[in-house]
Amino acid sequence: MQVALSVIGKFHTFDLARELHQRGMLAGIFSGYPRFKLRHEQLPDALIHTFPWLRTPYMVLARRPWLGARFMRLCERLSYATFDRHTARHLPACDVFVGLSGAALHSGRQARRQGARYVCDRGSSHIRSQHELIAQEHALWGQANDDTDPRTIAQEEAEYAEADCITVPSRFSADTFIAQGVPAHKVRCLPYGVNLSDFQPTGQPQAGHFDILFAGGASLRKGVPYLLKAFQRFQHPHKRLMFEGRFQASLVEQMRKAGLWSDGIALLGHLDWPALRERMSTSHALVLPSIEDGFGLVMAQAMACGCPVIASEHTGARDLFLDGDAGYIVPIRRADLLADRLQQLADDPALRNAMGQRALKVVQAVGGWQRYGDEAVSIYASLLQQGAPA
């Protein structure tokens, strides 16, 4: 079996590519990143095909908010469309083509014309469910949501219809597809792995303090206001809330106006893997209160560092651990429950330590990305057993 992959950036697709290459199954991987950004991906150059001519300029322009959301959406759509058509023109012979959603409609159709099976790999909830959840959240905070172009929704839904199979990283994601009318037999749950060589315990939380970590881009979609509310309610004489990753100044100002910004909050910016690993190891809890999140990789990374996780039901947490075992799982928008769970961990250090140890064992039992590769290959093999595409 030979499998070709496409991804506009890197994401988890390169982890999958390495697993396939180790099994002698990788026909090639297409990326919108420039080649120098992929030089450490541990794959033969001959198997990596890049088309960065629009994606790279878009990423540069994205740092200039004065260009406006409408113009940036146009640039993004162009980068996705040209990358998709480039992949379609240069797709190698393969048995299965796996394209990350949003930029694989034409390449998926070409794969099927060549006799291959087309797998649409979607990293989040159904595009329509995602749009609805984010729009609702923006409305709650008095903001217009113009992030999702209707043409993007149409493109993704066309991919779902064209594909022989849709892989998603969590049961939450799978449930949204079924709720939107996609046949259940077409949707396969394929939870992500974690690189255990990059993430492992490197320290201990500081006694006498209670340090809460959020990792990733802060936004309304990620449920940041509810974490800020929970932090205000949660009682501890030496509490700290740290945000790793991008946190826009406009969001800080919005949270200040809402009365949710308080002492003890620190913005760490983007941390490299060693620094993030250290921060996860020395935090008392990682909180991911997302309104919509296909699968929060930071949860598995924190657990691999022995850090308990408190996450919403819309993060893929159910696919990692049981509520109350290696952490807690709460409904979205429940700042009160987030605060209660933080209070439990702060008031009972033995409980927190036990949860941290169980979190580490859970992730170690998963087995890193090898398990992900095994399950992916099993899904692809089952597709091939169904015969030629219609």
Q: Which structural traits does this protein have?
A:
390 residues, alpha/beta, 7-stranded parallel β-sheet, 6-stranded parallel β-sheet, 43% helix, globular
Would you kindly provide a brief summary of this structure?
With about 400 residues, the protein is α/β, with parallel strands linked by helices. The protein has helices at about 15-20, 55-60, 70-90, 105-115, 125-140, 150-160, 170-180, 225-235, 250-255, 275-280, 295-305, 335-345, 350-365, 370-385, and strands at about 5, 25-30, 50, 95-100, 115-120, 165-170, 185-190, 210-215, 240-245, 265-270, 285-290, 310, 325-330.
Break the fold down into its secondary structure elements and pairings:
Blueprint: E1 3-7, H1 13-22, E2 26-31, E3 48-50, H2 55-61, H3 69-90, E4 96-100, H4 105-113, E5 117-121, H5 127-140, H6 150-162, E6 165-168, H7 171-179, E7 187-189, E8 210-215, H8 224-233, E9 239-244, H9 249-257, E10 265-269, H10 273-281, E11 285-288, H11 297-304, E12 309-312, E13 327-330, H12 335-347, H13 349-366, H14 369-385
Parallel strand pairs: 1-2, 1-4, 2-3, 4-5, 5-6, 6-7, 8-9, 8-11, 9-10, 11-12, 12-13
